[in-house]
Amino acid sequence: MRLTPLALAAGLAFVGAGVRAQAPDAPAESVPPSPPQLIPDRKLTAPPGGEAGRRLPIVLRAQEVRSRPNLDAVAEGDAEFRRGGTVIQSDRLSYDQAEDLAIARGHVRIERQGAIYWGPELQLRVQRFEGFFLEPEFAFPELGSGGRADRIDFLDNSRARLSNALYTSCPRDGDAEPDWVLQARAVRMDFDANEGVAEGAVLRFLGVPILGGPEISFPLTDERKSGWLPPSIGLDSRSGFELTVPYYWNIAPNRDATIAPWLSTRRGAGLQTEFRYLEPSLGGTLNLDLLPHDQVAGRSRSAWQWQHEGRFGDSAFYSANLRHVSDDGWWKDFPDSRRSLTPRLLSSDADVEQPLRLGEAEGVAYLRMQRWQVLQDSDQRVISPYQRSPQTGVRLGGSVAGLSYSAETEFNRFTLPDGEDDGTRLTGDRVHLLASVGHRFGEPGWWLEPRLAFNAASYRTDQRMANGERSASRSVPTFSLDFGVELERETSGFGRALRQTLEPRLLYVRTPYEKQSDLPNFDSFGKDFNFQSIYTPNAFSGVDRVSDSNLLTAGVTSRVVDAVNGKELFRLGVVQRYLFSDQRVTPQADGTPDGEPFDQRFSDLLLLGSTSLVPSWTLDGTVQYSPEISRTVRSVVGARYSPGPFRTVSATYRFTRGLSEQVEVGWQWPLFGRVPTAAERGSRSMIGAAAGGGGACSGTWYSVGRFNYSTKDSRITDSILGVEYDAGCWIGRFVAERLSTGRSEATTRLMFQLELVGLSRLGSNPLGVLKDNIPGYTLLREDRRDPISSDE
């Protein structure tokens, strides 16, 4: 276990603070000049050692000073001693120059590099930094934490020992014990070795011991050190109560590992591991999860992931991201393990890239492999994408004589994952060439860009295609003409200077019809119909399908931006497509013999709007309206209200006619107690009056959550509900998450976390879940990685 703040509390005793002389502005002739004033400077470094340190001057001031030159001095009444980075204040101070010994008594105070120490008596050999401080207290205003000890013995510039030390970020009022306190019988510290050892350490929360050990080792800085990390606990509807106790192993400056024994009340014991490495030309991470005997499944289970990247020579780059789990049910039983956007489609890929430069053209040559593991343990079957084994090609681009050009040629071998080949899908090879050339005319305020593109592909399949052949080829040219205007004017409104724009745009596309229904479709899918895709020449992604086109897309967008900071305050857009002739290769028909050509002259109308003009409100929405049926086909409308820190409520409505209708609501809102102001957000000095007493932990309750409700199915799909309690010096979190894993299946997890501000976080970490799922969620404390935390 690592206890960096406690180490810092005592360790800063070795780090000096300098002073700097600051002279006031030049006085008028009639006013006597003021003497220079010494002002503490916390950013200066410790004084140099050796002979240079001994030559540093001594500054001693007090209400009364008695001195014997080159022998000793005694200062009484607001005494202050300064030498290089050492500053001592007290009621009475004596200094023996021959022994280099300073003795301070009565309200002794040292302030250095953001830390404050005070106590009744200090004896210190200044140059060697040897001595002791009796009954010292210390505070860190920036951290809002501090503590005390019966005695600090300074052994030399790098070693010290604390007796009966205490550390907390909670205020100490009278004799009452702080809400949380870390106490140790003795603490030994060696800053050269970056090691501290606490003997008889106990962490108490609300008077209850929650963590301890006879001897605990910890690092003294943010540098890594081997040791046990705080345990993580959780509750899962599939695995029961879970306990994870990670051990961090600092193998070398460029290599480390985390080994975490894991225990589940339902499944048994397992192990989670992570190994990281970083070399001058390569680096990566290897994760391995083992469950030797799952008591529920009755078998051994495992999962692993390897991420690696590096360079060959000066420019070639290679990478690998490989993943595998032992069985189809892993994604349901361990939903938080190695989170993925597609938990049922596990991609493994590796690639090598070599940058190219041919004359004025720049590009890259590449070789890639991609495979999929499909997890089918659900009542909803997943259709697997094709694997590429291999994919190799060259991509070039550049400009010459005002013409911009690009070209890509590629070979792919398409296969299906094991167990996914049902005999109805083609596999085989494809070679393709994509090329385009264009020229952009225009000046600021308008542009006109004609472009000619070419898509050619040749196929050889393992099975016979629809026409009975095993090989085929096709080539499709496309001409496009893109024209746009950007108009703007200065205006004002809502008490601010504004700039309004008007941006009409026209795109004409002409692509001849080429029959493609007999050809395989390895990687083409219909693009989503939105403001971005409507301005692209092809209705398909990928290479295998090219939509025939004789159409014009026309749209206009108007924006209102703040003329001072450029922030967009309002946007309104409308766009529609007009067909001059029927379209036969479309995402709906896909050019098949049974497919009907698309003959609707005017496409659906797309409307877009967003605004943040109303204070604290953000509104946005997109609507797809069909003039043929005079009804909305699809819409997404959202609103968010965020009147201040830790206050946000959002709602989103999603509708697709005939398919789905969902309402999503998310929030973070205080329930009870004082909420920090914007100026206090993230400020650690607000926590408990610097641990030196005064003030009290003010508790604030927050509600957090998000849920998706399907009105079509009349059920809640995924949901999160939790509460956070901020006591100032500690934060408690309780979050429940329900993840849908099928039409009638779901996994529920309960996450508990206790964050001791300035020390560590204990328990399972719900912060990633809250940040990823609640729009506008704000951390109650700044997201500062704690070397003793087991969070990420």
UniProtKB/TrEMBL annotation:
Q: Note down the stretches annotated as region Disordered.
A: 24-52
The LPS-assembly protein LptD central domain, residue ranges: 200-279
Check the record and name the Pfam families matching this protein. Answer: LptD, LptD_2
Range of residues in the leader sequence: 1-21
The primary site where this protein sits is membrane
Keywords assigned by UniProt? Answer: Cell outer membrane, Membrane, Signal
Location within or outside the cell? Cell outer membrane
GO cellular component, alphabetical, reads: cell outer membrane; transporter complex
The UniProt family comment states: Belongs to the LptD family.
User: What is the protein's given name?
Assistant: LPS-assembly protein LptD
Provenance organism? Rubrivivax gelatinosus (strain NBRC 100245 / IL144)
